[in-house]
Every structure is written in C-alpha cells, then in structure tokens.
Write a structure and sequence with these properties.
The complex is a heterodimer. By secondary structure, chain A is mostly helical. In chain A, about 50% of the residues lie in helices and about 0% in strands. Chain A has three helices and no strands. Chain B contains 17 helices and eleven strands. The two termini of chain B are about 20 Å apart. Classes of the chains: A mainly alpha, B alpha/beta. Chains A and B meet through α1, α2 and α3 of A and α10, α11, α12, α13 and α15 of B.
Chain lengths: ~80, ~475
C-alpha cells in the first residue's frame, strides 16, 4: 500500500490504492469493496471542480456571506 | 368537532384560543392516531404522551383563566429527533446516540415552547440525517402515508409522514441537501428550507456547517409562515445565525390576501438541468401548476442558469468533508455502528483534498453572484420540480452502499441540493397526485431572505388549487 503523495491530492481522481492508503493513514478501517463507490463519487466531484472552480485571489468566504446577507435587490417585488 | 386532526395548524390554534377545542382533546386525538398508525408508518422514535397530556391540561387552564396565549397555544407538534431538549434522549436516528441526553435545548424548540406548542414525541429520520430516502436500519424505515411500500423522502422522513398523516400539526426538520423539501414533496405537505442562517442551529445535530438549515413542514403555506416567523432570527447562542430582522411572514400573507394576485411577479423557468430527463407525468403536473400561477397574474419567463449539475456534484466537496470531520472519532472507534449507506457517504469526505474543499467554498460567492445577476435579474422566483420522477418504492432505492447507491441517491437530490450550495430559500408545495397514487410538488426558490415572496406565491397557488388531499389512511 503506497503513501498518498502531493500529486494524488492535487484535485486529481485518486486511484483505489491511493484511497486505501488515505483511509489507512486516517485510522479508519475500510473494506476493499467500499473503495470503488468512493472513487466513483470523487470522480464526479473532481469533474465538477474542473468545470466550476476558477476562483480569483480575492474570492473569499466573506464575499459569499456578504452577498447572502446584503442581497436586497428584488425586495420591491 | 368531527376530526380535529384534519384542521390546519392555524385553524387548530384558533379553535383552542376561542375555547371551542380543548387542547387536551386535541392532544388525545393526535395520540390516538399515533397509536393506530405508528405500526403502519413508523413515524416516531419515541412518544412523549404523558408529558404532552400534562402540558395540554395546563394549556386548557390558561385558556379558562384568560391568560395571554402564544400563537401555538396547545397545538401538538413533533420534531425530527435531532433537536436537543435538555434531559431528554435525542438519538439523531443513530445507534451511536441511542442513549445521548443533551444538557441544553435547541433555540428553535425553546421558541416553539414559548409560543405554547406541545411536543408529543421525537420523529424518525435517516441516521445522522445522511440519506434522502427515509430508510433507517436502527429504528426501521419510515413509510409513506400515501402508500407504505414507497419511501417518504428524507432525511426528515418522520416529519413528512407524521404531518401528512395528521399525527402532528407541524414538524421541524433540517435541510442540508433537500431533507425538508424532499419528504414534504413525497408526503404531500408544505416544506420551507429557509435561507442559510435564517434560523439558529443552536442545539441541533450538525451535519455540514456550511449547508445545514433548519426548516418546517406543515399542512399549509400559512402554517409554515407562522412557524418560520416564530423560530427565525438572531440568536446569541449561534454566531452563524443572521442578524437580519424577521418579517411577520404570516401577517404579510394575510395582508396580501391568501389568494392574492401575483400580477407583475416573474416566475422563472430554468433553461436547463432542472427538467432534464423528467418523467412526463411530473412535467405535466408542473406545467399545470405553472398555468395556475399564470392565471393569478404571474408572468412566466424562461431564464438562463449555469451548470447546476456540476454545482450539485460540487456540493459534495463541501458536505462530506465537513461531515467526515464530525464523525471521524466514531468512524475510527465504532465503524460497525453505522448503516452501510451513511458510512459509504461519509467515506467520500476523506477523499476530498483540503485544497479542493477550500476552493469549493471560495467559489460559492462567485457562483451565487452569477445566479443572482444572470438568473434572478430576470425573475423573482424560480419554479422547478422537487423530484424529476415519481416517489420511488422502498425496493427501488434499497441499494446498499455500492456504486448504484450513489447514482440513485444523486437522482433524488438533483433538484434540491444546488440551492443548499447557493444558500437560497426553497419552498415545496404539493401540486397533485400521480397515477401511482403518490404526491408530487413544485419547488419555489427565491433570492436570499425572500421567504416572504415564496410564501406569497405558494399561498396564491394553494388558494387557487384548494387544500391538498389527505392520504388515504
């Protein structure tokens, strides 16, 4: 079982061996048959990330909260 | 009164306040119904009958004494078993917390108590609110009152079933990916998932702090409006609760007239995603509901939306890492005490890198900004189905923890989860019964903190369509 590398964690799909290593490192016992569904779910997440995630340097969490809290456009509807 | 459990919450509260209906009689009627239907529906994890009877007697004494009454005085409610009450077991639908006794009470519960509500029990739910179907291997599956072979939707399964079956007049639920709107739709009741931060989460079981919302399920839009008015607002115990003032949603509805016109209001129909691969029967019911709103004066407009399929998937990059962190100690020490589906979903959180999690959160502002700018600039409310298909049978979604599970569950939450990612309010309103005898619902979505507008549109629809049918029990 190989160690998880920086490359594995760089928003790429983790292969089953890397996932198994990740679980082993976290101290959570996982059966072999549990790995493939996790890999499938991660593939979807990573595909979505490739489509959507291009945050700029100044895209902060506060920007989201501010937008949510201060959105008043349409209040007259 | 023939069957007081058939009243809406507002009607029941008015009848108690007027002295026409003793709270004790109403509580007894609900408990009788619980006793008769619990073996069929399995809505409750525990029933607190004796305490409810005691509170009902006190409520009746207050009416007789002419004391000031709260807006829920004497009304029987029950809630998803994840709202803490000091000194009382709160299972969170889990084996792990089967004996957990919190030392504090949820703000939402305390506010309902202060309004005079009477809690009659703790409702079934998915284990730790981690599934959208209503399955629960620890406490048994909660069954749909319209057809027990079908799922209720989840994770607030007991909340949807109990309110629809007339066992309680309203119920609190939580919504992280659809868990209020899905059981509301599946059981034929109204469900409001408010804007992120609108309702305090103090004293509630956490799942994902970036997505969790506390919501309400009830039998009418007006009932939901009353409860949200009562539970929403700032809370010194919850720094994430919004400080924005809370409108009196119910009074605004009454002032507009329950069947008020929607003249000038723009109802947006998304150009993509929300209708992809939709069941034709669902599509027809949704089109009918749209025509009802149009007849009330609303203008129906097609609006562009971004890639919300990707948003749906991306929300898992936030939800499951946050949930995995919460559950890490138990996953290490008590892995056997989780059900297979819940555990399989938690494991996804381990594979999301910290950088991806952070990027997904950072992207939220930009994606919400695009939605408000590109979509909500052209409409006031979005109108989409809650479910693109009929309410599944239990067998259809009993798919263990394998790859098929992720796909099936993904289909169920496809139209609800994107709005959790954006943090926007959503209202599920029943619109009809399909050929298989199961209900179907429309979902109204608004800009941040525009729950008032959703209630207005929902109430206008209700007034035109009439009260929704009760399940054949």
């Amino acid at each position: 079982m190989g160690a998880v590398t920086d490359k594995d964690l760089d928003n790429k799909d983790l292969d089953d061996a890397a996932l198994a290593a990740l679980f082993a490192n976290s101290g959570v016992a996982v059966a072999a048959e549990e790995i493939a569904p996790v890999a499938g779910a991660l593939a979807r997440i990573n595909a979505a990330a490739r489509v959507l995630l291009r945050p700029a340097f100044d895209d902060t969490l506060e920007a989201y909260t501010r937008l949510l809290e201060q959105d008043d456009t349409g209040a007259q509807a | 009164m023939k069957d007081p459990t058939a009243l809406t919450l507002r009607q029941a509260a008015a009848a108690i306040a007027d002295g026409q209906l003793p709270a004790e009689a109403l509580v007894e009627a609900c408990l009788d119904r619980v006793e008769r239907l619990q073996p069929v529906l399995n809505c409750f994890i525990s029933v607190t009958g004796e305490r409810a009877r005691k509170h009902a007697r006190e409520a009746d004494a207050a009416v007789k004494a002419g004391r000031p009454l709260g807006p829920l005085h004497g009304v029987p409610l029950a809630h998803k078993d994840m709202f803490y009450r000091a000194g009382e077991v709160c299972t969170c639908g889990s084996k792990i917390r089967r004996d957990f006794v919190p030392d504090h009470t949820a703000t939402a519960l305390a506010r309902l108590d202060a309004a005079g509500a009477i809690e009659i029990g703790h409702l079934n739910m998915a284990e730790f609110a981690m599934g959208p179907t209503g399955h629960n291997e620890h406490y048994g599956r909660c069954r749909n009152p319209w057809n027990p072979d079908h799922i209720t939707g989840g994770s607030s399964s007991g909340s949807g079933a109990a309110v629809a079956a007339g066992l309680a007049f309203a119920a609190l639920g939580s919504d992280t990916g659809g868990s209020v709107r899905l059981p509301a739709a599946g059981c034929g009741v109204v469900g409001i998932k408010p804007t992120l931060g609108r309702v305090s989460r103090y004293g509630t079981m956490p799942l994902s702090h970036s997505l969790d919302c506390i919501g309400v399920l009830a039998r009418s839009v007006g009932d939901c409006a009353r409860l949200l008015t009562l539970i929403a607002g700032p809370d010194a115990q919850d720094g994430a609760a919004s400080g924005r003032p809370v409108p009196d949603y119910e009074r605004e509805l009454d002032e507009a007239g329950q069947g008020g016109a929607l003249t000038g209001l723009r109802i947006g129909i998304p150009s993509r995603y929300y209708f992809d691969d939709i069941d034709p029967e669902v599509a027809e019911l949704i089109a009918q509901s749209r025509r009802v709103l149009e007849a009330r004066g609303a203008k129906i407009v097609d609006v562009p939306v971004g890639d919300h399929g990707a948003v749906n998937d991306l929300s898992n990059a936030v939800l499951w890492p946050e949930a995995a962190v919460l559950h890490l100690p138990w996953l290490r020490e008590r892995p056997q005490d989780y059900v297979k589906q819940g555990r399989a979903r938690l494991l996804v959180g381990f594979g999301v890198s910290a950088t991806l999690y952070g990027e997904a959160l950072r992207a939220r502002g930009k994606l919400l900004d695009e939605l408000l700018r590109d979509t909500f600039s052209q409409c006031d409310v979005l109108h989409v189905p809650v479910l693109k298909r009929s309410v599944p049978s239990a067998a259809e979604v009993d798919v263990g923890g394998g790859a098929a599970m992720q796909q099936t569950l993904g289909q169920i939450v496809a139209n609800t989860r994107p709005f959790n990612f954006f943090g926007l309010p959503g209202l599920s309103v029943p619109i009809g019964v399909m050929g298989n005898g199961l209900p179907q619902a429309m979902q109204l979505v608004g800009r941040p903190f525009r729950e008032d507008l959703l209630f207005r549109v929902g109430a206008a629809y209700e007034a035109a369509a009439g009260p929704f049918a009760r399940p054949p029990l």
